[in-house]
Amino acid sequence: MKAKVIVTLKKSILDPQGSAVERSLKTMGYPVDSVRIGKFMEVTLAEANKAKAEEVMDEICRKLLANPVIEDYFFELEG
Amino acid sequence: MKAKVIVTLKKSILDPQGSAVERSLKTMGYPVDSVRIGKFMEVTLAEANKAKAEEVMDEICRKLLANPVIEDYFFELEG
C-alpha cells in the first residue's frame, strides 16, 4: 500500500526558504503573493490492511517524518 | 489563486535522503518497502484567470521550482 505524505510548517512558523523563493519569483516578474515550502514523501508499506496501514502511517509521521511542534502533516493512502 | 506543487526526483535518480529515512523506519521496526522524498510548495498567485495562472505556474516550475533534468513536477490550481 502506498502513502503520499505532505508535511508543512504550521501557519505561525516563519518559512525563510519560502520567503527566498517568493522574493526570487517577484524579482523575475511573476505575479506571486506568497510561497510556503514543505516536504512531500511517498512511502510504500508492506501492509495490505487499510486501517492498520493508516495507524502505522500516523505513527511514522508523528515519530519520524514530521516534527509535530512546528509542522502539520497530512497523508493519503492508495492502492 | 493558489497552486499546490509537488516536485519529485525522477524514478531513475537515486534518492539518498529517502533511502536514509527508509533504513531508519526499518530499524524502528515499521513494515516499509521504500521511501522517496520530494518537495511540496504552496504558491499564491495574484492572477484570477485560471488558464493564465496555469501558464505562469508551468513556467515558474520549469524555471525555478524544479530542475527538469532530474525532477518531475505536478501542480494543481484551486480557488
Overview of the molecule:
- 2 copies of one chain form a homodimer.
- By secondary structure, chain A is α+β, with helices and mostly antiparallel strands.
- Chain A has a single domain (2-78), classed as 2-Layer Sandwich (Mth169, Chain: A).
- Chain A is 35% helix and 38% strand.
- Chain A has helices at residues 16-27, 50-65, and strands at 2-9, 32-45, 71-78.
- Chain A is elongated and about 50 Å long.
- The model of chain A has no long low-confidence stretch (mean pLDDT 96).
- The interface between A and B is medium-sized, with 32 and 32 residues.
- Strand 2 (32-45) of chain A pairs antiparallel with strand 2 of chain B, so a sheet runs across the interface.
What's the rounded overall pLDDT mean of chain A?
96
Q: Determine the CATH topology of chain A.
A: Mth169, Chain: A
The number of distinct structural domains of chain A comes to 1
Shape of chain A: elongated
Which class do the helix and strand fractions of chain A yield? Answer: alpha+beta
Amount of helix of chain A: 25-40%
